[in-house]
Automatic annotation (TrEMBL):
Start-end of Low complexity biased regions: 371-381
Topology versus the membrane: Multi-pass membrane protein
Protein name: Putative integral membrane protein
Transmembrane parts of this sequence: 12-38, 44-62, 74-96, 158-179, 220-237, 243-273, 280-302, 314-347
PANTHER family: PERMEASE PERM-RELATED, TRANSMEMBRANE PROTEIN
UniProt KW rRNA processing keyword: no
Main location: membrane
Amino acid sequence: MPDTLSSARARTALASSALISAQLLLVAVAVAAVLWALARMWSVVWPVVIALFLTTLTWPLARALRRRGWPAALAAVAVTVVFLLVVVGVVALIAVPMASQSGELSDGVVEGIQKVREWAAGPPLNIGDDQVTAALDSAAARVQNSVGSVVTAVATGLAAMVGGLVTAVLALFLMFFFLKDGPRFLPWLARQLPGRLARDIPVVAKRTWVTLGAFMRSQALVGVLDAVFIGLGLWVLDVPLVLPLMVLTFVSAFVPIVGAVFAGFVAVLIALVSNGPTDALIVLGVILVVQQLEGNVFQPMIQSRGLGLHGAVILLAVTLGGSLAGIVGSLLAVPLTAMIAVVWNYLREQLTDPEPESEPTPPADAPPADAPSTGAAIPGT
C-alpha cells in the first residue's frame, strides 16, 4: 500500500513554519530598529567606537600601572599623555624627513612629469605639446565652469575635517574615562539590570571586550608584517624615506582598503621621483604582492586564530561591510562579526540542555546489585 501524506502532520508543520517565520520577522524588525537608531545617533556612536578601539590598545599599560599601586585617575592621565606623545612622534617621524627632502622631491616630481611628457611625445603615442596644451586648456575650462561645485566640495571637505577633529577630541576624552573607570563598568551594569540580565549581559560584555582586544592586536600584527616586508623592499631598492614609509604603512593598516592604497601610492610616488620609473614599478609590484599576502593569507590566518572565526568568514565580512557602509563598514565588519559570534556562542551555551550524568559501568565480573550477600570476605581486605 503506497504511503499517503498525513494532512494533520502537514498542517502542524505549516503552522510551525508560519510561527517561526513570524518570530524571525519580529527579530528582523527589532534589528532594523536598532540599526536605524544607531544611524540617527552616529555622531555619538562613532567616537565611542574609536575610543573603545584606542582603549584596547592602551589598556595593558594602564593595567600594569594600576597593579603597581598607581591611582586609577593618575594611571589614565599617564597613559593618555603617553599615547598623545606617541601620536605626535609618529606624525613627526613621517613629516620631518619629508619636509627636509621636500625640495628634492619637488624637483623629482617636475623631472618625472617632464619624462612622462617626453615618453608620450614618442612612439607609439606621438602626443605633441600642442595636444597637451589643448588638454590642459580644456581641463582649465571645465574647472572654471564648475566653480560652484568645487566650492561646494571644498566646503564639504572642510566640514568633514572639522567633524573629524571633533570626533578625535571626543574619542580621546572618552578613552581617558574608559581607562579610569572601565573596571567599574560591569559591576555598575549588573546592578542596573533585573533578573538574569544582571548575569548574562556582563558576561557577554566581558567576552566582547576580550574579542575586541584580540582584533586590535591582530590588526597591529598585520600592520607590522606589512611595514617590515614593504620597508625591506624599499631598502633593497635604496628608496629614500624608508622609515617614514614603514610607519605610514603600519598606521594605514588600521584603515582597510583606503589606508593601504594611500600608503602604496606615497611609496610608489617617492620611488618614481627619486629612483625612476623602473624602481617605481618594482615597488608597485612589491606592494601588490604584500597586499595580496595580507588580504588572503596573513589577515585571515591571524584574525581567525585570535577571533575564533574562519578565514573565509572574515573575507566575506569585510566584503559585505565595504559594500554596505564603505570604509567604516570595512573597518567594523570583522569586530562586529566576532561580537555576533560571541553572542551566538553564549546563547548556544544557555539554550543547550546539559548532558545527563551517566552511571558508572560495573565490572564484567561484578555480581548483580540485587544478588544476596554470601557473607564471604573480599580478597585483599
